Amino acid sequence: MSSSVKSRFDSLTTRQKQVCLQVVQGKLSKQIATDLGTSINTIKKHRIAILEKMKADSLVSLVRMMDRLELADADSRAAPEPPPKRSGPLRCLVVEDQRELRSAMVEALSNQGLDVISLPDGEAIESVLESSEIDIVLLDILLGQNKKDGMLLAEMVREKYDCGIIMTTAVTEQSKQLQALLNSADAYLTKPIDFDMLHAVIQSVARRLGM
């Protein structure tokens, strides 16, 4: 039984493991969101996914499973070992479909000492995130000819990867801004972008996330 529970736990993403360990310690979604620097809605989604992957029909059942694995102790030894921090500058992924703006962002951020990768749309974003250690994703809401919703991409990035998310867009409606921040974004900037402000926001998000 414990081996099957362990295999289920191992199938969780790194972020889901972090959430799981805090959930079984009795923390509320709001507390976990504050600790991990994300939104309450994101934590709720993680909790649902954790119960499904662990095949637990309730929180009590999940706690019992974790007790069997001795993973529910508050002692830090119970937590999975965090990956070693990558040395060197912050690495940013710029996802922007306007070529001139994309080039300008890459040049400005590179000149400010950041390591920058860029994409013209969201099609290859998962491939880049899988192959590179990205710290911050700079993501436009409307991308490419099909105008794929960047907020959906942001939700996917938040669900699967451990990195900060900054929305950069010409969309200025307050409802869009609030939706982005409540769902997955750590920060939101509207165009035209002030590159000094962008760099400051990147540093602020990185500090909040412990990078």
Strand and helix map with partners:
Elements: H1 2-10, H2 14-23, H3 29-36, H4 40-54, H5 59-68, E1 91-95, H6 99-111, E2 115-119, H7 125-131, E3 136-139, E4 142-143, E5 148-149, H8 150-160, E6 164-169, H9 174-183, E7 187-190, H10 195-208
Parallel strand pairs: 1-2, 1-3, 3-6, 6-7
Antiparallel strand pairs: 4-5
Helix pairs in contact: 2-4, 3-4
In short:
This protein is an alpha/beta fold and about 210 residues long.
What does the model show?
The structure is a single chain. The chain has 211 residues and is an alpha/beta fold. It folds into two domains: 77 residues, Winged helix-like DNA-binding domain superfamily/Winged helix DNA-binding domain (Arc Repressor Mutant, subunit A), CATH 1.10.10; 118 residues, Response regulator (Rossmann fold). It is 51% helix and 13% strand. The protein has ten helices and seven strands. The strands form two sheets. It has a five-stranded parallel sheet, with helices on both faces. The protein has a two-stranded antiparallel sheet with strand order 4-5. Helix 6 links the parallel strand 1 and strand 2. Helix 2 packs across helix 4. It is elongated. It starts with a helix and ends with a helix. About 4% of the residues have low confidence.
Looking at this structure, what is the CATH superfamily of the largest domain?
Response regulator
- Overall SS class: alpha/beta
Roughly what is the average pLDDT, rounded to an integer? 81
Strand element count: 7
Beta-strand percent range = 5-15%
* CATH-level-2 architecture of the largest domain: 3-Layer(aba) Sandwich
